[in-house]
Structure formats: C-alpha cells, structure tokens
Amino acid sequence: MAAVIGAWAGLAAIGWALLYLPHLPEGFVYGSGVPQQGDFAEALYISLVTLSTAGFGEIVPVYPVLRLVVALEAVTGFGLLTATVTWILQMYPALNRRRALAHELTLFREAAAPAGVLSLEPRHAAGLLESMAGNVALVSIDLLAFHETYYFREIEQRGSLPATVAYAQELASQAQRSDNPELQFAGRMLHAALDGLADVLRGKFGHSGSTSSDVFDSYELHHRHVRRGKSDTK
C-alpha cells in the first residue's frame, strides 16, 4: 500500500513538474529573497508544494494558463489525499470481518470440542452455521472488492482465516450428516459459501486444487499458518 501511494504521489509530482520546467524562471514571480532557478529541482519543488496543497506562496505563476495548471494540480492533490484516506479506511473493516470469522471458528472449536455441531441443539446449531455462511460470503466479497487485503497476514493464529477455514468445512460436513433437515440445510449453505470462497482464492489469487479442501491447504501454506492437528513441519 505504501509503495502504491508513493508511486501515485511521485508520478503525479514529476508529471506536473515537467509542465512547469519549460516556463522557469520567467513564468513565475519569486518572493523577496527567493533565488530564481530554472532547473528540474525547482520545478519539482513547485509541483510538490502545489500537490500537497501547502501553497507557501513564495513562487507564484504569472501567466493565466500556468495559474490554471497550478490550480488543477492542487485539486488533483486534494483528490489524491482523499483517495488515499478512503482506501485505507475501507481496507480495515474488510480485514476486521476476516479476523472476526477466524475468531468465531476458533471459539466454536474450543466450545464445541470434537462433537462439533452435533453437541448442540439442532435448531440452534443451524442458526449458528447459517450466520457463519453469511460471514464467509462477506469475506469472499471483501476479497473481490479489495484484492490487497489478501496479502495481509495475521500474527496470531486465532485471528488467521487460513489456519481456521478448514474447521468450517468440518462443521459443514457434520451438519450434512445430521438427521435434522434444518441442520442439513445449514450445512449445505456453509458448504456453498466455502466453495465460493475457494473459487475466489483459485480464480483471483492463483491457488491450485481441484477441491475446496486443496485450495484451503494452499491458502494456509501461503500464509504460513499451520492448522491445529497438523504437523509444524508442513
């Protein structure tokens, strides 16, 4: 993200500086005590001051066209700042939804023990799995809308979806083996949501695998988190 934002700002500053360079120094009025220079460093300084909307005012364009160009660059700089802040603010809710799903799966595993959904009353278990399916679908949408969130890796395994998503498959399989129709339906919903997530990981991020389980194994390996019950030497 820092590299992309830096590239945006750097390329914009250099591009506008190249517009100012042929008009230095005669196209600008310099304040008292400010040395007049006509090199690229001077043009870049004017561009950076304008792009950042600082507008010190010690160097002012003379020609009407140059004044218009400076104004346009200031508007561009404000737009760049707004786009940067908006991008960052939109990223973190998506990351938090992914972490929340991972924590939900971890807590479910700790509370339900090996019996999983079969240890719960079927209607209650079905409601939990349907909610989980909705959360998985939200994560899939976030990955499609904000590709860069995929590359954020969690330090703690409890908040890492690559390390916990396989447990959601176990829950879906348990539910589908149940005799309760509501729980079976919830299991199919969760399986469908997980297959959708696997399709996103396969299609957008290059994870190989003919099944969703294979894709999630590749996802886990790429993010360097080892699933519970698996060897640390994977």
Tally of distinct domains: 2
* Order of strands across the main sheet: 1-2
- Helix/strand order, N-terminal first: HEHEHHHHH
The protein's oligomeric status is: single chain
Stretches where pLDDT is under 50 for at least 5 consecutive residues are: none
Main sheet specs:
2 strands, antiparallel
Arithmetic mean pLDDT: 90
**Shape annotation:** rod-shaped
| Helix content, binned percent | 55-70%
Query: Which range does the strand content fall in?
Result: under 5%
Number of strands: 2
Rg estimate, integer Å: 27 Å
Number of helices: 7
Class per helix and strand makeup: mainly alpha
Taking the alpha carbons of the first and last residues, their distance comes to 30 Å
Question: How is this structure best described in words?
Answer:
- This protein has about 230 residues and is mostly helical.
- It folds into two domains: about 1-60, no CATH class; about 90-220.
- Helices cover about 65% and strands about 5% of the residues.
- It has seven helices and two strands, in the order H-E-H-E-H-H-H-H-H.
- The protein has helices spanning about 1-20, 40-50, 65-110, 120-145, 160-175, 180-205, 210-220, and strands at about 30, 60.
- A two-stranded antiparallel sheet has the order 1-2.
- Helix 1 (about 1-20) runs antiparallel to helix 3.
- The chain is rod-shaped, with a radius of gyration of 27 Å.
- The two termini are about 30 Å apart.
- The model has no long low-confidence stretch (mean pLDDT about 90).
